Amino acid sequence: MILKSKSAVVTGSTSGIGLAIARAFAAQGADIMINGFGKPEDIEAARAAIEAEFGVRCLHSPADMTRGDEIAAMIATAEKEFGAVDVLVNNAGIQFVSPIEDFPVETWDKIIAINLTAAFHAIRAVVPGMKARGWGRIISTASAHSLVASPFKAAYVAAKHGVVGLTKTVALEVATHGVTVNCISPGYVWTPLVENQIPATMASRGLSREQVINDVLLAAQPTKQFVTPEEVAAIAVFLCSPAAKQMTGANLSVDGGWTAA
Ligand code: NAD
Q1: Ligand 1 near 68 CB (within 6 A)
Q2: Which of 37, 63, 94, 127 is 20 to 30 A off residue 111, Cα-Cα?
Q3: CATH of 7-187+228-260 given 3.30.2000.30, 3.40.50.720, 2.40.10.220, 3.30.70.141
Q4: Does residue 188 carry a catalytic annotation?
């Protein structure tokens, strides 16, 4: 168990990829702070299941990733409760699909806040403790859209490209302190985030649901399969392992070959 006696904060982990990462870290022995929105009973069920299945502590933070003060308070609470934040995963993210000329300004601001600026707030809060302890792992869930664009996703693509720049910069700053900083770039993973963009993509491209799934989503992925949340989580676990200690500033693709094309 490579994360025994360690603790992790995973943002946006009440659902999808973040929940899979939280569960994979717990399986490796880490105490976990999950974060995100949802029905209180669903969040409590996910939290309690992590404690029961893996025998670790699991807390939920309701911090809103659009709020720097709430992000700082979430990290402070995790440090107080667990004694440290050894691993940070910046995973919370939202999507919105619209032609640029109709893109709502407030939606642009929200996507940049949650998908990019939240990582800045969380990273700056965890770095002092990681440097002091001489060990840390910072991982961000970027996207194939950190490397290539798709039409109608201006804010998302801009934010994800930004996450790569933030990752490289902080990796250089903490390189001699035992702290690695990387991002993982999935292709399409079947989660609520993908499900929710199907109606808007149908409208903006004039396609049926099946056409969006086969001709837009899976068209990008040479394997013609969705990535699973567990496959993304396995890479996050690997980045925490001793074998990955020289990997830093990297952007790891898990996209069924999408960005090779
Ligand atoms: P999801 O919708 O299943 O989960 C998103 C999580 O973020 C949820 O827990 C939600 O409550 C939380 N969240 C949303 N707004 C928040 C806020 N303001 N404050 C706190 N938490 C908030 O989505 P997912 O597909 O699991 O996406 C997770 C990450 O993976 C995102 O960064 C996304 O961009 C990225 N990603 C997803 C895919 C995909 O195909 N699903 C592909 C590449 C990258």
Answers
A1: no
A2: 127
A3: 3.40.50.720
A4: no
